[in-house]
Design goal:
Largest sheet: 6 strands, mixed
Radius of gyration: 44 Å
Mean pLDDT: 75
Distance between the termini: 111 Å
Helix content: 25-40%
Low-confidence stretches: 1-23, 982-1140
Structural class: alpha+beta
């Protein structure tokens, strides 16, 4: 209350926020959400708005209902009336304003002045020569943001771990403009500054509403406070300060303007407060609200400024000046204001009060009559009504028994009520009424109530019911008992009665902390609740994971530092009883806060709701779904104690009931929309629009909608999307248990390479890693066989030869060579070189030697004589002796083959484990004949296919493609299962649709039975197929940092195959096989296979090779620039036609 001591007018001005003079009072008010200046006219019965202001406000005018005249009786030119809402701070009033033409200013009538609590009449006024107008003489103290002399420094504990977020918290679209304006304002005041360098600390920004509807920027510094070293500066005791005020006759109360922001934050500490917004990162230049050590530092700074002044009490940013008479008081006020001016501090004009006879300070009313407890502290007790049944009576006795230890009278007083609780019938008579009144009186004074002690521990106990909120502030006394300091209760608004229980409990705690705000700000205290889920919701959980209303409540709680814990409801006697419906009615600011909460929720829902049409669709489908209607009833009332009667859908909802809320007819899961069953398929399609991956689709869903099993349904929908399957990345399969061949030259690998136009045949031993290379002058089978014979005659014939599917290896001529010389052939999967990894790795090693060495023979000798990781060279392992080189011959050693095999297996196990972990390798499911797949191997044109059968080689399958007349072999890695029940237009992707007519002929294609024209490939049950880790890792050079040859050429055994005896279904007469793409084993390719190529440039050679039974060389385009025949590339396509 401000007293300007105008000698002509016996009035006092309350909350008049604009300039004034001695003859006129003005107020700056809100009109329909916009600001407008009014002149206070206590002689007017109506409120008048000028014609220009009416146009600015875009008011809807109605015909005047009455004739208005001025004080001299002349009629006023009223052009219309309009219903407007006026607001001042936390007060609102609806009025019928008259719009007057020719009016020069807006006039506020006496009724609205009274409703908005702007003026109030005093009984007397006297003239005092010592009285001065602080707002005029010290006008500079009420302008802008000051700067106090002290500098605040954040000190962290040695073991503090930095914390940062990497994406800004979402700000509702409707609030972003206001938030950006607030950021700009803070930048203009130099409270914050932009940050453009990396920082270890970074926090999230949230938006909170003030009581006037404006927003407040809140930075969540909870993680920083865990590591802050506090100064623990002693705060003054309230009882000591109040004792000084007993002699006061006049009082003036001063309030700092954003007090914390007037203290500069040390430069080295500024980056600790970095926070992330949608407009970039910022940090504080001034001491921020929310730092645990800030209140005590501010108190110390204030005491330094006011040190030595008499009649001054300071508690944080509240300053009270008192005097025993008017002269002393105003002299002290002037000294205080001068000291504040010298310190650079500024004050908040709207909250300063001068020359008052009664003020509220530290939870007490201070006046010339003395110090009295604030009536608000016990209003909750005094507003209680008698119990209406045994249950309420027992609840009352529970509170009385708890407080009985602080007053011996309570047990005697409450005896009549205690007798009622044990009687068979509940009878409330005069004795009980008298006892109830005495109990309320006893609870409202000492010794039950204690004075607040800043150095004691404090606890807020809050509880909620469907009708009211109840809370009590407790203080730990010297006997280690929790004694009440203040009681509070209020009824719920109509909107709040429809809150979910989790929201009501969170509201109760928030309201209680704000009710006891004066005691709690800047202190660490405890909060007890009987609702366990709130411990995590108001504790460590991020805002984005909370229900929308709970988000708002947590934002309001960010200015407090507290720990929350659970207490059974039966032990919270006081709060439980105060939450009965008979509590205090809600105040205006409670109603305002409720409106702000609903506005916040509405803004968030408008952001996530696609459009009004879809909102109506969701509401319509919810109203048609009985489960949804039951769910709304359970959320807004109570869930049944016995859930066995609920259906499966509602039982799943019961498990997450603390996260379910409602807003109007919409159901929310935290901040996400609940989608009824009938719309879920539609929202899955919308979520997968653009064919984003699984992770992104699930993230999109988590931002917008929810239902039980939502993530699993999104996963199933994405995994079954045929379009996504066609573009899916390959998945690695785990490498199987490592093995090595039985000995040297038992199992070898081979490949053909082209180096600078020269073809080479490369042979590598899988045991010793011995490499042999022979030049080739053609790609024919006869040429390759000749070179194999030259090697075999020196080193002997192996048991197994592994190669790719090149025609020189798969021809009939090479098959006869293998049978004659007594070795077995195995082939790698087409487009899967890893299965012959040792050979592929050896090719890289050989090419590296050729690039680096002038003499390739000397380089090969050096490679064969160099020891590997196991301690032996390839030569030693091959021949059992050391090899002589130009460098010399090392001393022969006895080769311990068992030790070599143990070390090799051990190293492979480590590499396999690392590789499987690095690539997140997982086994792929087995495919069955008849399943529809998408075939996509490297360099392949993707196409549909149908599984024909499994090949004898592990993880290989035969697939029918095209119109069913082509049969190719592919590794399981290259086959992606399609969903036949989903329709997708292949023509849009440029892919020819698969014709499945051939699959419907004789019905025995899946049975393994052979028809007259079918051919049966021979099956070798003991065939071995291996993979090689080295092929996946690439080859190394001489650089020591790269993987060495011997380390990266380990053999990767294949996944065992349990179906080696599977009979391959017949191949139709017209089937086309690609020898470079499919492994054609033994009799699968008849002797009369012909090469079909449109460019018969080298037809004679082709026919010659075909007639002789081997594959022949490629056409003329495969002639290198050196005139030699080159190895076919992988994109060269040859097709073999079968003829009868």
């Amino acid at each position: 209350m401000k007293d300007f001591r105008d000698f002509d007018r016996k009035v006092q001005v309350r909350e008049v926020s604009t300039d004034f003079d001695l003859y006129e009072f003005r107020a700056h008010l809100g009109v329909n959400g916009k600001e407008l200046d009014f002149t206070l006219d206590t002689g007017s019965q109506v409120t008048i708005i000028t014609e220009q202001s009416s146009r600015d406000l875009k008011l809807d005018l109605i015909k005047p209902s009455k004739l208005l005249v001025s004080a001299d009786g002349n009629p006023l030119n009223v052009i219309g009336e309009s219903n407007v809402e006026l607001s001042n701070k936390d007060r609102y009033v609806d009025c019928l304003a008259s719009i007057m033409k020719g009016a020069r200013r807006n006039l506020l009538g006496i009724i609205e002045i009274h409703c908005l609590n702007l003026l109030h009449v005093v009984n007397s006024m006297s003239c005092n020569p010592f009285v001065f107008d602080p707002f005029v003489e010290f006008s500079d103290l009420f302008q802008g943001l000051g700067t106090m002399p002290d500098v605040f420094r954040i000190v962290l504990k040695p073991d503090t771990v930095p914390y940062k977020i990497y994406s800004p918290r979402s700000i509702p679209i409707g609030l972003r403009e206001q938030a950006k304006s607030e950021i700009d304002k803070m930048l203009e005041l130099n409270v914050i500054r932009p940050v453009d360098i990396p920082t270890e600390w970074c926090f999230g920004l949230t938006i909170a509403f003030k009581a006037d509807g404006k927003i407040r920027m809140c930075v969540d510094l909870t993680m920083l406070n865990k590591g802050v070293e506090r100064e623990l500066y002693p705060l003054p005791r309230v009882s000591d300060m109040l004792a000084q005020l007993s002699v006061g006759q006049l009082f003036s109360k001063l309030d700092a303007n954003s007090g914390f922001w007037q203290i500069v934050l040390e430069e080295n500490s500024q980056l600790f407060t970095t926070f992330l917004t949608p407009w970039g990162r910022f940090c504080y230049n001034r001491m921020p609200f929310g730092i645990s050590s800030a209140p005590e530092f501010f108190q110390k700074s204030m005491e330094k400024i006011l040190h030595g002044l008499e009649g001054v009490i300071c508690m944080m940013d509240d300053i009270l000046v008192y005097g025993t008479n008017s002269k002393e008081h105003w002299q002290r006020v002037k000294l205080v204001l001068q000291r504040i001016r010298n310190s650079g501090m500024t004050l908040k004009k709207e909250k300063c009060q001068f020359g008052m006879t009664e003020v509220k300070f530290l939870g007490h009313l201070v006046s010339v009559q003395g110090i009295k407890p604030d009536p608000d502290k016990v209003s909750a007790i005094m507003a209680l009504t008698p119990p209406t049944g045994k249950r309420e009576a027992r609840s009352l006795m529970g509170m009385v028994n708890y407080l009985n230890k602080f007053s011996k009278k309570l047990a005697e007083i409450s005896a009549p009520i205690y007798a009622v609780t044990g009687a068979s019938d509940f009878v409330w008579g005069p004795d009980q009424n008298k006892a109830f009144s005495l109990i309320k009186e006893e609870l409202s004074k000492a010794p039950v109530l204690c004075s607040f002690n800043v150095n004691s521990r404090h606890r807020v106990s809050a509880d909620s019911s469907r009708q009211a909120l109840g809370a009590v502030l407790l203080q730990l006394n010297s006997n280690h008992e929790w004694q009440p300091v203040e009681f509070a209760s209020r009824k719920l608004t109509d909107v709040e009665t429809r809150y979910a229980m989790i929201e009501l409990e969170a509201l109760g705690i928030t309201w209680a902390c704000e009710k006891f705000d004066f005691y709690l700000v800047g202190r660490v205290f405890e909060v007890e609740t009987d609702h366990k889920p709130l411990i995590s919701l108001l504790g460590e959980k991020d805002l984005s994971q909370l229900p929308l209303r709970v988000q708002r409540f947590k934002m309001r709680l960010m200015r407090y530092q507290f720990t929350i814990f659970h207490t059974p409801g039966r032990c919270m006697y006081i709060a439980d009883y105060l939450s009965r419906p008979s509590g205090n009615g809600f105040q205006d600011n409670d109603f305002i806060e409720c409106r702000i909460v609903e506005r916040f929720v509405a803004t968030c829902i408008n952001d996530i709701m696609p459009d009004s049409i879809q909102e109506e669709e969701i509401i319509r489908e919810i109203s048609r779904d009985p489960d949804c209607l039951d769910l709304i009833d359970y959320i807004q009332s109570e869930w049944p104690q016995d859930i066995s009667s609920l259906n499966s859908e509602l039982k799943r909802m019961f498990k997450v009931r603390d996260k379910l809320t409602t807003y109007g007819d919409v159901i929310l899961y935290n901040s996400r929309l609940f989608i009824p069953k009938s719309l879920r398929s539609k929202y899955l399609e919308l979520c997968h629009d653009g064919h984003q991956g699984l992770t992104k689709c699930q993230r999109r869903a988590r931002q917008i909608f929810w239902w039980p099993g939502c993530s699993r349904d999104v996963e199933n929908f994405v995994n079954k999307c045929n379009t996504c399957i066609k573009f899916r990345k390959y998945k690695h399969q785990p490498l199987s248990e490592p093995t090595i061949p039985a000995g040297p030259w038992v199992e070898i690998g081979s490949d053909i390479l082209d180096f600078k136009g020269q073809l080479y045949l490369l042979i590598v031993d899988y045991y010793t890693r011995w490499i042999d290379v022979r030049p080739l002058y053609s790609f024919s089978s006869s040429e390759v066989i000749r070179e194999f014979k030259s090697v075999f005659c020196i080193l002997g014939v192996p048991k197994v030869l592994r190669s790719d599917n090149a025609g020189c290896y798969t021809s009939q001529l090479f098959k006869e060579f293998a049978e004659t010389w007594g070795f077995h052939q195995t082939f790698s999967s087409p487009r899967y070189p890893e299965s012959n990894g040792m050979a592929e790795r050896a090719v890289g090693t050989f090419k590296s030697l050729c690039f680096k060495s002038k003499d390739i023979h000397a380089a090969l000798l050096a490679y064969r004589a160099a020891p590997m990781a196991e301690g032996y060279s390839p030569g030693e392992l091959m021949f059992g002796r050391a090899m002589k080189t130009p460098l010399g011959k090392p001393r022969d050693i006895q080769v311990n083959y068992k030790e070599f095999e143990r070390l090799a297996i051990q190293e492979k196990e480590k590499q396999f484990e690392r590789w499987n972990k690095k690539h997140n390798a997982k086994y792929l499911s087995e495919l069955s004949p008849g399943q529809l797949v998408w075939v996509k191997a490297p360099t392949d044109i993707g196409q549909k296919g149908i599984i024909d059968c499994k090949d004898k080689h592990p993880q290989s399958y035969w697939v029918k493609v095209g119109n069913g007349d082509s049969l190719i072999r592919r590794n399981r890695k290259h086959l992606f299962l399609l969903q036949p029940d989903q329709s997708d237009s292949d023509s849009e992707d440029g892919i020819l649709p698969l014709q499945l007519d051939f699959w419907e002929d004789n019905g025995n294609s899946n049975t393994g039975e052979l028809t007259q024209n079918q051919l049966t490939p021979s099956i070798e049950p003991n065939a071995i197929n291996h993979g090689d880790l080295s092929a996946l890792r690439g080859f190394s050079g001489d650089d020591a940092s790269e993987v060495s040859d011997e380390d990266s050429s380990l053999v990767v055994p294949a996944i065992p195959d349990n179906n080696l005896d599977l009979v391959v279904p017949a191949i139709p007469d017209t089937a086309v096989l690609d020898p470079l793409e499919a492994s054609v084993n033994n009799d699968a390719v008849p002797n009369n296979a012909l090469l079909d190529d449109s460019s018969q440039t080298n037809a004679d050679q082709v026919n010659k090779d075909s007639a002789s039974g081997h594959s022949g060389s490629p056409p003329s385009q495969n002639i290198s620039k050196y005139g030699r025949k080159r190895k076919p590339r992988r994109d060269d396509i040859y097709e073999y036609d079968f003829h009868e």
